[in-house]
Amino acid sequence: MIPKRKTRCVQIGSVKIGGKAPILLQSMTKTDTTDVAGCLRQIRKLAQAGAGLVRIAVPTRADTEAFAKIVSRSPLPLAADIHFSPERAIEAIEAGAVKIRLNPGNIKNKNDIHRIIDCAKRHHIAIRIGVNEASIRDLKHDVKTDRRVSLMLNEMTGYVRLFERRKFEAIVLSAKSADTVRTIEINRLLSKTFDYPIHIGLTHAGLLEDALVPSAVAIGTLLAEGIGDTVRVSIAGDPVQEIETGKQILSSLGLYRGPKPELTVCPTCGRCEVDVVGLAQKVRRLLMKTNKPIRVAVMGCVVNGPGEAADADLAICAGSKKGFLYKNGKKIAAVEEKTLLGALSAEIEKIK
Ligand code: SF4
Hints:
Blueprint: E1 9-12, E2 15-18, E3 24-28, H1 36-49, E4 53-57, H2 61-73, E5 78-82, H3 86-95, E6 99-102, H4 110-122, E7 126-132, H5 145-165, E8 171-176, H6 180-193, E9 199-200, H7 208-224, E10 230-231, H8 239-252, E11 262-265, H9 276-287, E12 295-299, H10 305-308, E13 314-318, E14 322-327, E15 330-336, H11 340-350
Iron/sulfur cluster binds at residues 266-269, 271-272, 299-301, 303-305, 308.
């Protein structure tokens, strides 16, 4: 088990971030916020996928009004994403946000920041202080990349002190960059400097295909060092993909605590006698319908397959036009290729 660095625990509605709490996966709705039914549909899918918190953008007054309706019917605690407007921040808090994400750098008037902090304090909610590399105040285009990290830390330090002087400590920190190395460096510095919980992830990571590897490297490196209390994988696309990817990153480090099936597939080679990839994709779709913590293996042959699948709860080792079904390493049936999936599904059903 990877030891997690010690951080304070901050209560976020019904969930906790930091301390000994499990690392929380979060995402954002991608629907128009005034589309209350659409947002709720997305939130329910995120809840089913394993999200613990969902953030919603509230750029207009109409959005904070819709936010209030969404909060009252949401199965998950909701955070509001604030940029530029102290009024939206206060409206969102009064509407029932359990946390707001605020970049104090884009609230011009210090008194307005104080008003937001005081309102959050009255409502016992948390604030994520978000600093983005792209919006650092002193950043000029010619600033060398290694200086950018120290500028981000300076900016964050100034904001944290401002909140602390106002006696507000229900804080989560996030410093984001689209660059993998700078994301790792700034979060290492945050972790050394503060004991507040840290939200990790890349910003603007891109489409699924482009976001996966950089996100896994940045988030995975930090988590492996014990840094990070909540994770958001930013993907331009379906937010459920953000949670699925976050679960995979956590699982690969043994940090995922929820129930989740796992699929192992052999890499395939010249010994395969069936379409292993096609079969594995069907098995994957089957497993997406269950939350049972089972391990399933799909192997392309009976030469190495049984040995490699011995650790799985259930395994298919394919042969010529048929396959062998294994349970806990023991062969339980020989099945025609076309009925393999049905036979596997029936065995999954039997597992409690
Ligand atoms: S399990 Fe069989 S088919 Fe799959 S990679 Fe190994 S030897 Fe090849």
